Amino acid sequence: METGTLISLAIYFIAMVGIGVYAYRQNEETCSGYLLGGRKLSAPVVALSAGASDMSGWMLLGIPGAMYLSGASSLWIAFGLCIGAWLNYIIVAPRLRVFTELAKDAITLPDYFENRFYDSSRSLRIIASIVIIIFFTIYTSAGIAAGGKLFESSFGYNYEVGLYITAGVVVCYTLFGGFMAVSLTDFVQGIIMFIALVMVPTVVVFELGGINNTIDILAETDSNLLSLFIDASTGATVTFVGVVSLMSWGLGYFGQPHIIVRFMAISSIKEMPAARRIGMSWMIVSIFGAAATGLFGLAYMNSIGQSLDDPETIFITLSQLLFHPLIGGFLLAAILAAIMSTISSQLLVTSSSLTRDVYVTFIDQQCSEPKQVVIGRICVALVAVVAIALAYDKDSSILSLVSNAWAGFGAAFGPLVLFSLLWKDMSRIAAIGGIVSGAVTVLVWIYAPLGENGGSIYPDLYAIIPGFFVSSLVIVAVSLLKPEKDDNIRLLFSSFVDKYAMESKK
User: What residue intervals traverse the membrane (predicted)?
Assistant: First the structure.
């Protein structure tokens, strides 16, 4: 590896650990301080932290790879994600910030569900925490595996060494600095990703003599590359179901714990409009920069007469071909930033669920705040160890499960979050039914051998659509058929409506 690349990566790693140390010294030794940053994050930190934790390595690898192969028809997923993220900021973000504080200062999503519905049986907490712990441990392992493969393919290190480097750096700043460290490092990582995704396609266009020449090269290669309605890799027309499936990724935002927890941590809802503007500007530029990297990268590779065995490496290839090793190292750090920002968020959400929803709830209900912080740090380390173990077999099928985790979380939690914030007559039983039905529908849709030749039911339709629909239907039907008898639930909702109206006017 070039010396300049090593220097850039070393600076990046030192900066991440340094931020963790800073956050450790600034944090309050309370559960709220460690797991939610004391609800005092600024709008820019919330916005870029939410964006960076959302856009993992697939932003710099997956989207460019899809555009390289299929052309502009892959943009539908970008449209869907942008719309979903915007609606999340408009509908969920301000309401969840107010309601979680009112609901006994809930600091985790299962906390909120239990307090919102006065669930003395703790069924909601148990079911929600099981979903979070299982899916996020697998999700985390996939991120660590991606780091291992990056170190192996780009840096020449052994795959297992890459696992330990990736996990080690993330665990260092997450374990000591908690939510504040995760959010601050996400902020810095978001800036790195933004710069990289503007720089790479811009330099490619300059190398090709301007945007018109770039488009001409693409048109000469295959005119279908510029069509939103034709998949250039197959020449097939993109169907209505295909467009809906790609855009339906946006539905997942309402139920992603590692994203919506950021909204709970902002200092006040007065900061939310600024967070929305910053977050959406970052997302739109970054996601379309990633798309441009793949499409323009194809034009560049054709212009120099080279091809790629793996289209998902186009960002890495361009960083090595077009930039000085020092800058190339910075661009590779952007991929690590995307991977690590998501791993750290998932580690902390899983740790918070193990601490608050398992240990404190069922083992030590009188656990002091400082002890909860210690338990949280232990859980971060334990989850990381399990995730590394799962990622050890780089040929395992773990990564294939992750492509479905977004659908699982979106269907299990998305309708529940929306209805809990918007409908006063939603019942506790309906909340439980919504989680279970959404998760089960996604799993059956993907894995049950009910389709042709023992395959999935209808693979062309993304599983989040039937999952989200069934969960919503169950929530509405059960709430109407078995109305909630506990008046405290409606009183709490009325208090929330009044407080939200008051906070919104400030």
Answer: 6-24, 45-69, 75-92, 126-151, 163-184, 191-212, 232-254, 280-301, 321-343, 374-392, 398-422, 429-449, 461-481
Domain CATH for 398? 1.20.1730.10
Cα separations (Å) of 250 from 51, 54, 434, 437?
14, 12, 19, 20
With respect to residue 30, please indicate whether it lies within any of the assigned structural domains: no
Sequence-distant (≥ 6) Cβ neighbours of residue 412 within 8 angstroms: 131, 255, 434, 435, 436, 438, 439, 442, 467, 471
Structure letter (DSSP) for residue 8: H
Q: Is the pTM of this model over 0.85?
A: yes
pLDDT score of 206 more than 90: yes
As to burial, measured by CB atoms within 10 angstroms (0-12 exposed, 13-18 middle, 19+ buried), residue 503 is middle
Q: Which amino acid is at 204?
A: V
Asked whether 222 and 57 are in contact (CB, 8 A), the reply is: no
3-state SS of the chain: helix, strand, coil percent to 5? 80, 0, 20
With cut-offs at 50, 70 and 90, classify the pLDDT of residue 398. very low
In a domain, 15, yes or no: no
Confidence band, pLDDT 50/70/90 cuts, at residue 87? very high
Residue 206 domain boundaries:
36-505
pLDDT digit string, tens, across residues 123-173: 898 899 888 887 778 778 877 887 887 777 777 778 888 888 888 888 887
What is the count of structural domains for the chain?
Answer: 1
d(CA 506, CA 502): 7
By the 8 A CB rule, do 245 and 77 touch?
Answer: no
Pair 100, 107: CB distance under 8 Å: yes
Q: Is residue 407 part of a domain?
A: yes
